[in-house]
């Protein structure tokens, strides 16, 4: 399968990453199906793409009319129907290995034999996900960053059995949708970006949990002294505090108490209106 053979793309998941990836693929001119397990989830994701395209259009960041881009996006709930014509599937389901393996087992059955199966996992082993299929050479990682429409980088990750042909096709596809790919040739936990970003977020959690600094102090330091686009707590609110929590748990790591508290209180960030900052009754991530 080469880049020219990729005609139809299916994205599994309509959450932040799933709808964002769907949007990026549609903007690039591909027909794309976005699938989630319930119609409400699919509808929410669809509306988020419409909102985002309007924003981009207002700012002159896309040339096409948003409605023309949307005409290339279809939605589906049934997995088999969603993937039966796909040449590339990008899975963006929750970060649980057992769930991913179930999905990849189904994909192996429902997709045509040349179809490439990519996972947007942020830290789970591509090699292990691929064991759920009979075509590990066609399985690789394709890790986008949140929000996909704004973030340039995509990690293209080799599992132990990923073929060069598969990785190269996904690399070229990443360029074709206007992103900058990098190869990650070792299937290590966290790949490259989260291997570096993870300890940064963890350390922020531990020093706030220990009462050594406040959330605002940490975020302000990283933005105003280090020049980061946002601090680790605002970033947690953007990506979803539960996402980082599950990544740590799946890796068998201790979770800082501040993260546990937020997950238990279901204050997961922007998507619930409250996380480390209050986006409904407060000023949001305002740290000067
Ligand atoms: N689509 C369209 N517009 C959007 C948008 C989207 N998805 N998200 C935000 N916007 C809009 C906002 O509504 C706002 O619009 P306004 O100007 O009309 O108010 C505008 O974009 C915000 O623009 P800003 O100038 O304030 O911000 P920038 O565009 O310069 O930067 C950012 C925003 C790209 C999110 C930047 O803050 C950033 O880079 N943050 C860090 C993000 C990051 O590190 N992501 C990686 C997370 S780790 C990850 O994803 C890994 C995973 O495995 C968990």
Automatic annotation (TrEMBL):
Where it mainly occurs, coarsely classed, is other
User: 3-hydroxyacyl-CoA dehydrogenase C-terminal domain location, by residue?
Assistant: 190-279
Asked if Signal is a keyword of the record, the answer is no
- GO biological-process terms attached to the record: fatty acid beta-oxidation; glycerol-3-phosphate metabolic process
Gene Ontology molecular function: (3S)-3-hydroxyacyl-CoA dehydrogenase (NAD+) activity; enoyl-CoA hydratase activity; isomerase activity; NAD+ binding
Keyword list (alphabetical) reads: Fatty acid metabolism, Isomerase, Lipid metabolism, Lyase, Multifunctional enzyme, NAD, Oxidoreductase, Peroxisome
Compartment(s): Peroxisome
Q: Does the keyword Lyase apply?
A: yes
Domain (3-hydroxyacyl-CoA dehydrogenase NAD binding): residue spans on this chain: 9-187
Q: How does it assemble?
A: Monomer.
Q: Which family does it belong to?
A: Belongs to the enoyl-CoA hydratase/isomerase family.
Could you identify this protein by its name? Answer: 3-hydroxyacyl-CoA dehydrogenase NAD-binding domain-containing protein
Organism whose genome encodes this protein: Salinirubellus salinus
User: Complete protein: which residues are present?
Assistant: 1 to 288 of 652
């Amino acid at each position: 399968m080469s880049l020219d053979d990729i005609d139809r793309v299916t994205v599994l998941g309509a959450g932040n990453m799933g709808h964002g990836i769907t949007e990026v693929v549609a903007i690039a001119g591909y027909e794309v199906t976005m699938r989630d397990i319930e119609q409400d989830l699919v509808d929410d994701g669809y509306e988020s793409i419409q909102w985002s395209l309007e924003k981009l259009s207002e700012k002159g960041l896309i040339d096409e009319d948003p409605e023309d881009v949307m005409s290339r996006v279809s939605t589906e709930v049934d997995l088999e129907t969603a993937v039966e014509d796909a040449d590339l599937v990008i899975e963006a389901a929750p970060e649980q290995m057992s769930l991913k393996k179930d999905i990849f087992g189904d994909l192996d059955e429902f997709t045509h034999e040349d179809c490439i199966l990519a996972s947007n996992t942020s830290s789970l082993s591509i090699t292990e996900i691929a064991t759920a299929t009979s075509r590990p050479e066609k399985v690789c990682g394709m890790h986008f960053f949140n929000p996909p429409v704004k973030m340039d980088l995509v990690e293209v990750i080799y599992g132990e059995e990923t073929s060069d042909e598969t990785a190269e096709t996904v690399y070229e596809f990443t360029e074709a949708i206007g992103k900058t790919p990098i190869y990650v040739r070792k299937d290590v936990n966290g790949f490259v970006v989260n291997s570096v970003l993870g300890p940064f977020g963890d350390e922020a959690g531990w020093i706030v949990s220990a009462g050594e600094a406040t959330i605002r102090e940490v975020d302000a330091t990283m933005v105003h002294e280090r020049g980061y686009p946002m601090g680790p707590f605002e970033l947690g609110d953007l990506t979803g505090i539960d996402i980082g929590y599950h990544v740590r748990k799946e890796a068998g790591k201790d979770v800082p108490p501040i993260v546990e508290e937020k997950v238990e209180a279901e204050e997961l960030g922007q998507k619930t209106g409250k996380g480390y900052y209050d986006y409904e009754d407060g000023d949001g991530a305002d740290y000067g």
